[in-house]
From TrEMBL:
<feature type="transmembrane region" description="Helical">
    <location>
        <begin position="541"/>
        <end position="558"/>
    </location>
</feature>
<feature type="transmembrane region" description="Helical">
    <location>
        <begin position="240"/>
        <end position="262"/>
    </location>
</feature>
<keyword id="KW-0812">Transmembrane</keyword>
<feature type="transmembrane region" description="Helical">
    <location>
        <begin position="601"/>
        <end position="622"/>
    </location>
</feature>
<feature type="transmembrane region" description="Helical">
    <location>
        <begin position="669"/>
        <end position="698"/>
    </location>
</feature>
<dbReference type="InterPro" id="IPR004869">
    <property type="entry name" value="MMPL_dom"/>
</dbReference>
<feature type="transmembrane region" description="Helical">
    <location>
        <begin position="565"/>
        <end position="589"/>
    </location>
</feature>
<keyword id="KW-0472">Membrane</keyword>
<feature type="transmembrane region" description="Helical">
    <location>
        <begin position="205"/>
        <end position="228"/>
    </location>
</feature>
<feature type="signal peptide">
    <location>
        <begin position="1"/>
        <end position="17"/>
    </location>
</feature>
<feature type="domain" description="SSD">
    <location>
        <begin position="565"/>
        <end position="696"/>
    </location>
</feature>
<keyword id="KW-0732">Signal</keyword>
<feature type="transmembrane region" description="Helical">
    <location>
        <begin position="643"/>
        <end position="663"/>
    </location>
</feature>
<keyword id="KW-1133">Transmembrane helix</keyword>
<protein>
    <submittedName>
        <fullName>MMPL family transporter</fullName>
    </submittedName>
</protein>
<keyword id="KW-1003">Cell membrane</keyword>
<feature type="transmembrane region" description="Helical">
    <location>
        <begin position="315"/>
        <end position="339"/>
    </location>
</feature>
Length: 713
């Protein structure tokens, strides 16, 4: 068995690098299936001559005012970029003073000189257009640009340059993920190794689960690459990062259950294989059930319309399924081969049956048995108070807030926002039937006011200002299907919530002007709006489906309905507690009142699935002890015998998710913080106190509607 897993892992090693390369291309990750903005991107890619052009905007800034030498520097940089050959699929480089390269096209979308110079003459913009929007090519292009232009800190003369625009944003976001899996892996292994050494005081037992998970992770990466290469799913850097955390956290815990039970069995059996068979037989149902809950919850994510959520489901489900297989095959094989030596220096010896010594968890179990109502009420009050603290919507993170430290593209956007029409860096893209193109363009740029802060939402569309010859055609591009595209700039920050709120109003105005003809609005701002709407729809679908699935698995495992219902309710309560307390801490302690839009659904899936997952370990032991004792005694004995290992498992999982907080992306930091907080609440309040207290209070009613004859006490 060990040889089989080693062979599979070695075959998967080169595929791991291939998976990382596929994950680097996130050009489709944050789009919404079937959305208007995704349709715009598809139409532009398929039906226009140059396809979807991605722009890098170079903002040259001198606080005292741009000089003639600065203009010559911008022109020289543009020529250097044209001649370097380092930018893939380059179509144009333009400055306020010249088109350095790119074919002359009366239907081009390059703005006139007045649109590239700020009104206060402190900023000039150069535009670099390329047709390929794949993330690796964008990264290469932005790196080449930054090699040529002055740095954001400034050159010898004090001229500063920022590379922003869609290409700059994408490159900086991807740079934040570079090496992220290696960092996560190193931090995760260090944290887990420390916890396992403290818990078991044995180097081998600490290393074995990590080695098992590492091999399972490599096999998963190879199989995941196969799914991606076959076109069955997609993958992103965010998905691979969470895969590392999930597999090492959940996988280590599955292995710990077998380790703990194996150690107990070695104290009762002389033969190592006999002890392992007994340990595996008694832990396998709990591990399979727990794994099935997580796999099912992850697969429900495949129902999402938001690509980043949908693509995460199959790969995470695959990882957990492989981990369950490894924990039930590879882990027992390794421990059997090592025998009692695995626990050196604290080697378990044969012990005669005797009354167990009073332990910490014995005292906790006694307290729960004596005061179940008081404990249940107190814990519920604490969790409910925390959940109520989160009432009230928090604004969504905009692009500038998504990094823990602002990169070049964010600072460039801030320069443009302060000195230009803010939307210049991320314009709307409108696809419209040719016969109503002018009418729609006029409606959006001249006659439209939105209810957003009483401002004009659209400041201009390319060529609408009449500042250059052929202005009526400037900025439009025609496809073979009699469609036009043009760009329009927002007067507000395109990454703000105000801009996102303006999208449905603008679409309504455009549709009225089109009078039944084709008109679609896309671009970054529209994509953000469509993503926000999709996340709301996905949550309303995924939450009830996940809960129903988890209820079915628990009911099948426990052959009861009452206990699964309140277990799910308690985990939902801990989820609300984590979200509410997390909101307070983000807003009032960490100074980050904005929230990642993905946070609620990701936190729900991980906390509910994993929270129920680890309750399964306690519940399965209660069910096992129920064969010998009445329910109240079965609960207290199960808590006493499993409290230590289950709490260790919860700490391991919480510590693993906490590693997400070392990453530079605010979204992953928030997910890591909230999930860690929720897992700690679930470990020390829900699983250790609330669920046992409720089980003691309900007694034999836990097993309704199936009748069981109470075992003798």
């Amino acid at each position: 068995m060990i040889a089989v897993w080693l062979a599979l892992a070695m075959l998967a090693v080169p595929l791991h690098a291939e998976l990382s390369e596929r994950a680097a291309d996130e050009s489709e990750t944050f789009l919404v299936r079937g959305s208007e903005s995704a349709a715009v991107k598809r139409i532009v890619d398929e039906r226009f001559r140059r396809g979807s052009e991605t722009a890098a905007v170079i903002a040259y800034f001198r606080e005292s005012g741009i000089t003639a030498d600065d203009g010559r520097r911008a022109d020289a940089d543009a020529l250097a970029l044209c001649r370097s050959g380092a930018i893939p699929n380059l179509t144009m480089v333009a400055t306020p003073y010249q088109r350095a390269c790119g074919e002359t096209d009366p239907l081009d979308m390059s703005p006139g000189a007045s649109l590239l110079t700020s009104p206060d003459d402190t900023v000039i913009l150069s535009t670099v257009l390329m047709t390929d929007d794949s993330t690796p090519d964008i990264e290469q292009a932005v790196a080449a640009i930054r090699e040529v232009v002055p740095s954001a800190a400034g050159d010898a003369s004090g001229l500063r340059a920022f590379v922003t625009g869609r290409a700059g944003f994408e490159a900086d976001r991807q740079a934040a993920f570079e090496g992220i899996n290696g960092t996560l892996l190193a931090v995760t292994i260090a944290v887990l190794l420390l916890l396992l050494l403290v818990t078991y005081r044995s180097p081998l037992v600490a290393l074995v689960p990590l080695a098992v998970v590492a091999l399972a992770y490599l096999v998963t990466a190879g199989l995941a690459y196969g799914l991606v290469a076959a076109g069955l799913t997609a993958v992103s850097g965010q998905t691979t990062s969470i895969l590392v955390v999930l597999m090492f956290g959940a996988g280590t815990d599955y292995c710990l259950l077998i380790v703990a039970r194996f150690r107990d069995e070695l104290r009762r059996a002389r033969d190592v294989e006999e002890a392992m068979v007994a340990a595996a037989r008694r832990t396998a149902p709990a591990i399979v059930s727990a794994g099935a809950i997580v796999v099912g919850a992850m697969m429900v994510l495949a129902l999402a319309d938001f690509n980043a959520t949908r693509e995460m489901g199959p790969i995470l489900a695959l990882g957990v399924a492989i981990m369950v297989c490894a924990s039930l095959t590879l882990q027992p094989a390794v421990l059997t081969a090592l025998g009692r030596r695995a626990f050196w220096p604290a080697i378990p010896r044969l012990e005669p049956e005797s009354a167990p010594a009073v332990t910490f968890w014995g005292r906790v179990a006694g307290l729960v048995h004596a005061r179940p109502g008081v404990i249940a009420a107190a814990v519920t009050a604490v969790l409910a108070a925390g959940a109520l603290a989160g009432i009230g919507a928090r604004p969504a993170l905009d692009f500038s807030e998504s990094f823990r430290e602002a990169p070049d593209s964010v600072r460039g956007q801030q320069v443009i926002r302060d000195h230009f029409i803010p939307g210049r860096a991320a314009p709307l893209r409108i696809v419209v039937a040719e016969e109503v193109g002018g009418k729609v363009q006029s409606a959006l740029t001249e006659g439209t006011r939105t209810p957003v802060a009483g401002m004009h939402a659209v400041a201009r569309s390319a060529g609408a200002d009449g500042d250059s010859p052929g202005a009526e055609e400037q900025g439009r591009r025609r496809s073979a299907n009699d469609l036009l595209i043009f760009d329009a700039d927002l007067r507000m920050d395109p990454f703000s919530e105000q801009s996102t709120d303006a999208v449905p109003v603008l679409r309504e105005v455009a549709e009225r002007a089109a009078d039944g003809h084709t008109v679609l609005i896309g671009g970054t701002v529209a994509e953000n709006y469509d993503a926000r709407q999709a996340l709301g729809r996905d949550t309303r679908l995924i939450v009830p489906v996940s809960l129903a699935l988890i209820l079915v698995v628990l009911a099948a495992l426990l052959r009861a309905v009452v206990m699964p219902l309140y277990v799910i309710a308690t985990v939902i309560l801990s989820f609300g507690f984590a979200l509410g307390v997390g909101s307070l801490i983000f807003t009032h302690v960490l100074g980050q009142p904005a929230s990642d839009p993905n946070l609620p659904i990701y936190a729900f899936i991980f906390l509910v699935a994993l929270g129920v997952d680890y309750n399964v370990f306690l519940l399965s032991r209660i069910s096992e002890r129920r064969r010998q004792h009445e329910t109240r005694r079965a609960v207290t004995e199960a808590l006493e015998r499993t409290g230590g290992v289950i709490t260790s498992a919860g700490l391991v999982l919480a510590a693993t998710f906490a590693t997400l907080m070392v990453l530079p992306m605010e979204a992953l930091f928030q997910i890591g913080f909230v999930v860690t907080l929720g897992l700690l609440a679930d470990t020390f309040l829900v699983r250790a106190l609330l669920v046992p207290a409720l089980a003691v209070m309900l007694g034999e009613r836990n097993w309704w509607p199936f009748k069981r004859t109470a075992a003798p006490g």
